[in-house]
């Protein structure tokens, strides 16, 4: 606000000054506009678009490394490649852009002033995720306030973040805590089983699973327990709060649904999803890797095992399985899975 008032004074003063006739004022504005236009086009001409151009210009050492320029789409002047993200299939658009720019290991693009790097190469991903240069998670003010300015996930890489990680590792996700949450996992699993058992026709599995994970989280963190099938205002509000691009060089037929690809064959070393094998890293890797990964994996494995143990899972009468995807916080089925279950006879 202050600088606005200052600039108004400046213009008022300039208009009183004889040297600033209307023509010369218009000419100065034109020159400033022209300079802005030239710089904008100059930044935009850089591979990866305006944010990378500006960065190269302001960091001459980067600019001199001409041969090391990372390929990537320029997008539009000023805004860069916003269009890549404005889609529920952003990961496909990004993959297509990489193909078009012949970006094999690494691609650069701009989202406004923010520089973005994408890789689908496990070695490059490991190098990036383990480097302190990439240990910050750039966050806009809105996301930061949404997380009460305290969240570990958006905390800058520094003492506060490190302290939270240490506390979480010692008190929330240590083996004793994971074991201690066993009864809670079992209780929620049997609630799920009795809910699913009530269906004698096709139904969607997603709602119950979502509610189960939310309840599990609330019980672990806040010690609050909700019934899985009860709906009240508080539960609905909570629900509102929470709501596989593969590299063809690493995986054959990357866009086909072949879950067996992740199961190690006889004689092969077991495939780790905990972050050491970057071909598949659902929990991330390196400094910012998910601190709750063991807890998450234990819970998911136990619930899946229980549900498969209790029921035979059969295709729904009405719908075939539709593998269309949508990118939200993670990649989800566009049309949630509907199935029929038959309790196993024992
Ligand atoms: C199957 C379940 C889970 C999956 C797939 C998952 C996945 C992830 C991923 C991909 C990240 C981001 C890593 C990065 O930014 O590089 C992350 C971070 C995080 N996750 Fe998880 N997560 C799961 C369960 C949990 C659970 C149960 C908790 C806690 C109760 C949790 C707490 C966190 C926190 C606090 C971070 C931020 C870490 C940091 O910035 O230092 N996650 N998770």
From TrEMBL:
InterPro entries: Cyt_P450 (IPR001128), Cyt_P450_CS (IPR017972), Cyt_P450_E_grp-IV (IPR002403), Cyt_P450_sf (IPR036396), Cytochrome_P450_78A (IPR051996)
Requisite cofactors: heme
One protein family per Pfam: p450
Keyword Oxidoreductase assigned: yes
Gene3D superfamilies: Cytochrome P450 (1.10.630.10)
Keywords recorded for this protein, A-Z: Heme, Iron, Membrane, Metal-binding, Monooxygenase, Oxidoreductase, Transmembrane, Transmembrane helix
Domain of life, per lineage: Eukaryota
The keyword Iron-sulfur appears for this protein: no
Membrane-spanning ranges: 29-46
Family: Belongs to the cytochrome P450 family.
Protein name, entry field: Uncharacterized protein
């Amino acid at each position: 606000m202050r600088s606005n008032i200052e600039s108004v004074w400046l213009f008022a003063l300039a208009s009183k000054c004889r040297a600033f006739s209307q023509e010369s004022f218009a000419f100065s504005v034109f020159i400033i506009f022209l300079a802005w236009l030239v710089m904008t086009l100059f930044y935009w001409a850089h591979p990866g678009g305006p944010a990378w151009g500006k960065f190269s210009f302001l960091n001459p050492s980067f600019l001199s490394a001409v041969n090391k320029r990372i390929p990537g789409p320029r997008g539009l002047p000023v805004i860069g490649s916003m269009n890549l993200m404005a889609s529920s299939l952003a990961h496909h658009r990004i993959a297509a852009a990489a193909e078009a720019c012949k970006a094999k290991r690494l691609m650069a693009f701009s989202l406004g002033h923010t520089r973005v790097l994408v890789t689908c190469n496990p070695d490059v991903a490991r190098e990036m995720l383990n480097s302190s240069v990439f240990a910050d998670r750039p966050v806009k003010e809105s996301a930061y306030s949404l997380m009460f300015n305290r969240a570990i996930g958006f905390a800058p890489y520094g003492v506060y973040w490190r302290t939270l990680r240490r506390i979480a590792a010692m008190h929330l996700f240590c083996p004793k805590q994971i074991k201690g949450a066993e009864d809670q996992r079992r209780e929620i699993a049997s609630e799920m089983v009795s809910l699913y058992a009530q269906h004698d026709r096709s139904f969607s599995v997603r709602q119950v699973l979502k509610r189960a994970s939310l309840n599990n989280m609330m019980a672990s963190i806040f010690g609050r327990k909700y019934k899985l099938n009860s709906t009240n205002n508080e539960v609905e509000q909570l629900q509102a709060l929470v709501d596989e691009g593969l590299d063809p060089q690493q995986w054959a037929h990357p866009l086909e649904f072949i879950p067996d690809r992740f199961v190690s064959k006889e004689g092969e070393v077991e495939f780790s999803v905990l972050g050491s094998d970057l071909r598949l890293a659902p929990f991330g890797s390196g400094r910012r890797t998910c601190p709750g990964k063991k807890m998450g994996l234990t819970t998911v494995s136990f619930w899946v095992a229980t549900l498969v143990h209790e029921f035979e899972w059969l295709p729904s009468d009405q719908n075939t399985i539709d593998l269309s995807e949508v990118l939200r916080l993670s990649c989800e089925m566009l049309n949630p899975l509907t199935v029929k279950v038959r309790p196993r006879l024992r």
